[in-house]
């Protein structure tokens, strides 16, 4: 199967606009994430791609084939749900076989394909075990096997790890990526967990109020958010209001000098084609880990403040630093040698490459 495209999808539920001209292209073999705050429309978009929901307008294409209006099993797609949707009274084998029986696949072939699907999720030999005798992580693997057994080209996953504990979630992140890649599937995955998305995705789309506001690789979206909304949703950031003083660099990237109540900052824009004018209002975004503590190597972008409080976490420490009145900065220092006390003076600096100037 070639790329999956959603073109200008609109979906209303009464007064609620769940999708508002949402468009995405997912390349063949990609593990693609839909991400956004609760109610932004990501599940509705996944369900339209799956054939579980029909858009009011717009099209869904699998390659050149317009599949809008077709049910899931006619789209070469299989869905894995948050709740697993397994039959608790049936055995593992019976659960996995269910979709094949519905499709009237011959018994001998069913046995062979169930064994293959269980092997893919590393559950060989579990055929006769009852579902309610399987752990949460094993049940999730059965749900994956049940989706894989129909040999889909596209695997659709709706918050598949939400019911697992933290350790299993980490393990299953690797597993799901392995399964998608080993079977040459195109995966579309909905989550509100940004760490899950950053660690697993080839590319992702961030949605807001039914619209796709940014698409890109995890690193691109993290380092080059196009808006304060995306900067604040994907990871943590410090946002401050500022005014453009002048352009300091204009080559492949536009570098700006801006002034704020916290002082002057040199930074760069993340949005090609946007040229804020001198005197215009902007927002400055600096990630907590981009702030160096008491480091003299960067002569510009200095912030002087006092430590308000700290959280020591071994590998790193998180400070909240009060500067210029009440403004609180989040600062993350990795591998801390010195633990600073509340009320201590502190100087923070940031590399201009890590100071992102955004539309206000
Ligand atoms: P969450 O992370 O909370 O699951 P989401 O981003 O997946 O949210 P959707 O489930 O797609 O969001 O919902 C988008 C909007 O459409 C929400 O306001 C939701 O209440 C509404 N909505 C979704 N499905 C229905 C439905 N079947 N009937 C009425 N409203 C719905």
TrEMBL record:
<dbReference type="GO" id="GO:0016887">
    <property type="term" value="F:ATP hydrolysis activity"/>
</dbReference>
<dbReference type="InterPro" id="IPR013611">
    <property type="entry name" value="Transp-assoc_OB_typ2"/>
</dbReference>
<dbReference type="InterPro" id="IPR050093">
    <property type="entry name" value="ABC_SmlMolc_Importer"/>
</dbReference>
<protein>
    <submittedName>
        <fullName>ABC transporter ATP-binding protein</fullName>
    </submittedName>
</protein>
<dbReference type="InterPro" id="IPR027417">
    <property type="entry name" value="P-loop_NTPase"/>
</dbReference>
<dbReference type="InterPro" id="IPR008995">
    <property type="entry name" value="Mo/tungstate-bd_C_term_dom"/>
</dbReference>
<dbReference type="GO" id="GO:0015847">
    <property type="term" value="P:putrescine transport"/>
</dbReference>
<keyword id="KW-0813">Transport</keyword>
<dbReference type="Pfam" id="PF08402">
    <property type="entry name" value="TOBE_2"/>
</dbReference>
<dbReference type="GO" id="GO:0022857">
    <property type="term" value="F:transmembrane transporter activity"/>
</dbReference>
<keyword id="KW-0067">ATP-binding</keyword>
<dbReference type="InterPro" id="IPR003593">
    <property type="entry name" value="AAA+_ATPase"/>
</dbReference>
<feature type="domain" description="ABC transporter">
    <location>
        <begin position="4"/>
        <end position="234"/>
    </location>
</feature>
<dbReference type="GO" id="GO:0043190">
    <property type="term" value="C:ATP-binding cassette (ABC) transporter complex"/>
</dbReference>
<dbReference type="InterPro" id="IPR017871">
    <property type="entry name" value="ABC_transporter-like_CS"/>
</dbReference>
<keyword id="KW-0547">Nucleotide-binding</keyword>
<dbReference type="GO" id="GO:0005524">
    <property type="term" value="F:ATP binding"/>
</dbReference>
<dbReference type="InterPro" id="IPR003439">
    <property type="entry name" value="ABC_transporter-like_ATP-bd"/>
</dbReference>
<dbReference type="Pfam" id="PF00005">
    <property type="entry name" value="ABC_tran"/>
</dbReference>
